[in-house]
Design goal:
5-stranded mixed beta sheet, 18 helices, globular, alpha+beta, 459 residues, Cytochrome p450
């Protein structure tokens, strides 16, 4: 009898061993398999629960344009349900996903984006004003503070005060917990998700999340009691929005989407910015080109003008290419048999679109291990070749905001400080929860830049 499916070749190794490598050696995990098997390979599981990795642009196009009746995504993200809740955009599929996405997308585009630019510049200056010149510090910490304060101001509309400080502290604690090796293991191994009290890693995180929930629901109740007609924060815009049937979002839907925006929109940008400063210091020629470009601006440049600078844009793009914060786009689970690149995948197969491997294909990016922003000035890459924010109808809704924020923070700091690594040794990413990040101990020193007559002033 002719088989109804065929899968790419792949390694035969114990599931436990494979998962441990996935958690503790995330780059070697995919690089070793790709070296042995090429653009697509299968990780064999029990009871036909196989995972198939794809990274060829044609395969990614087939995956991202497939009908939602063939592939489902929400079920592949259930490891995040403990934090984001069942109403999160990341866990929805089909009509409910499309309905929610249409409601959440408008605040991240157009005039609203421009209004956020001043907030980003202001917060960046406030945080960097606290730097002690010549004293080493961990670069990730101020980047987290900037991106968290931006997201709390933009998403929640929270101004300075005890409430902002409290929720900032709680969120930082949760994300630091998720970044620890023990909790990272817990995310991917369900048997580790045991609440053994406030002192256990999982128990501590659940209690922190409960405190965050209490604050979010209190803020939602308070905001419902107010008129939010003139407010521009995303929470108020979400509360004013209506589905096609005239219904508003429930408190639970608001809470889950707020948590999604908070976790996806702050931690990732902080990691990307930390990498950008690493690369800029690693290659003085890159820093020199950036400064020359920034010096073409006059005093008080408009944030939108800054965001359009070609070389600044290329540096941010290359930062997100070489070590994408998310190694993979969201997993797709096969609902009905589908053919991709000549392989027929059966129902239940998990498809992993590999962002990291797509970004490291020699055919697409010559010398892929080299940091070369110029490659983005020399040619355009398709959405199936360059995909740091995922693809298809699951592409990150905040991608324009994340890129905008990254460029403004980088430009603001570079115009004021030279940020240098204390130790110049090359660094490789480590796992931080479900993302990739620089090792936590990367220390830097900031020194003021010599002001020239035409140096731009960012306000």
């Amino acid at each position: 009898m002719k088989p109804t499916h065929n899968l790419p070749d792949g390694p035969k190794m114990p599931v436990l061993l494979r998962r441990m490598k996935f958690v503790f050696q995330p780059l070697e995990y995919v690089e070793d398999f790709a070296k042995a098997y090429g653009d697509h390979f299968t990780l064999w599981g029990r009871n036909d629960s196989h995972m198939v990795y794809f990274s060829h642009p044609q395969a990614l196009q087939q995956i991202f344009t497939a009908d939602s009746h063939q592939l489902e995504v929400g079920r592949g993200n259930t490891i995040l349900k403990f934090m984001l809740g069942s109403n999160s955009l990341l866990l929805l599929d089909g009509d409910s996903h499309q309905r929610q996405r249409q409601l959440l997308t408008p605040p991240f585009h157009g005039d609203r984006m421009r209004a956020y630019g001043e907030t980003i510049g202001e917060i960046t200056q406030q945080v960097t004003d606290e730097w002690k010149i010549g004293k080493p510090f961990h670069m990730r910490m101020p980047m987290q503070e900037i991106t968290l304060r931006v997201i709390l101001r933009v998403v929640f509309g929270l101004d300075e005060g005890p409430r902002l400080e409290k929720i900032q502290q709680l969120l930082s604690s949760v994300l630091d917990s998720m970044g620890s090796p023990l909790t990272s293991v817990g995310i991917f191994f369900r048997f580790m998700q045991k609440d053994l009290g406030a002192w256990s890693p999982w128990g501590r995180m659940l209690r922190l999340l409960q405190q965050i929930d209490e604050m979010i629901y209190a803020l939602i109740r308070e905001r419902r009691a107010q008129s939010h007609e003139n407010r521009q924060d995303i929470l108020s815009l979400m509360m004013s929005a209506r589905y096609d049937d005239g219904q508003a979002m429930t408190d639970e839907e608001l809470r889950d989407e707020l948590m999604t925006l908070l976790t996806a929109g702050h931690e990732t940008t902080a990691s990307a910015l930390t990498w950008a400063f690493y690369w800029v210091d690693h290659f003085p020629s890159v820093r020199d080109k950036l400064l020359r470009e920034l010096n073409t601006l006059g005093d008080n440049p408009d944030p939108s003008t800054v965001a359009r600078l070609p070389y600044l844009t290329a540096v941010c793009q290359e930062t997100l290419r070489i070590y994408p914060i998310a190694m993979n786009a969201f997993p797709r689970i096969v609902r009905s048999p589908i053919e991709i690149q000549g392989y027929t995948l059966p129902v239940g197969t998990t498809i992993i679109p590999s962002i990291y491997l797509a970004h490291h294909r020699e055919e697409t990016y010559p010398q892929p291990k080299q940091f070369k922003p110029e490659r983005f000035l020399e040619r355009q890459f398709s959405q199936y070749e360059y995909l740091p924010f995922g693809g298809g109808n699951r592409r990150c809704i905040g991608l324009a905001f994340a890129q905008y924020e990254m460029k403004l923070v980088l430009a603001t700091i570079l115009s004021r400080f030279q940020v240098s690594l204390v130790n110049k040794r090359p660094l490789r990413p480590v796992r931080r929860g479900i993302t990739l990040a620089l090792p936590a101990g990367m220390q830097t020193v900031a020194t003021p830049v010599q002001k020239r007559a035409n140096t731009p002033v960012f306000v």
